[in-house]
Amino acid sequence: MSRIGRAPIPIPEGVTVDVHKNTVQVKGPKGELKQRVNPDIRVELQENEILVKRPTDNRLHRSLHGLYRSLLNNMVLGVSQGFEKRLEIIGVGYRVEKKGKSVTFLLGYSHPIVFIPPEGIEVNVESNTQLVVRGISKELVGLVAAKIRSFRPPEPYKGKGIRYAGEQVRRKTGKSGAK
Description:
Layout: H1 3-6, E1 9-10, E2 16-20, E3 23-28, E4 31-36, E5 42-46, E6 49-53, H2 59-80, E7 83-90, E8 95-99, E9 102-106, E10 113-115, E11 121-127, E12 130-135, H3 138-149, E13 161-164
């Protein structure tokens, strides 16, 4: 059996889980999430745990078993604690500003980039070179952080651009003179 799929998902205080046919709905203090589940995979509720079970040991069922267990675990963590990704902006003159709901990036292009985050995602600007993407859906937080990073990915020569906090950028040496 899958080691990930076999592990029960603990349900913390203040979180309610409803299972209806192929849909699992999780409500918590931070919000509400829904996930459709493949009809072959069974989701069972016991006292304070969610169990994910599969009917057979064929390859498809084994892969779906761990997948849905991870998705449900991320939903429970999201509605109880939430997720966040930190981004850093590195480069002379590169900065970010928040105006109302929109976030404006000045990244060395001829124009500023105005980004409006989707519903359920909050973008906080901690300083003019650091920002935090927060939300209850791990998938959406990662997607928005990747979208922001794509505005100016870190380049390998000087390391300028937008990167995740703590991300190591492999640097290349520049041109070497003729010998």
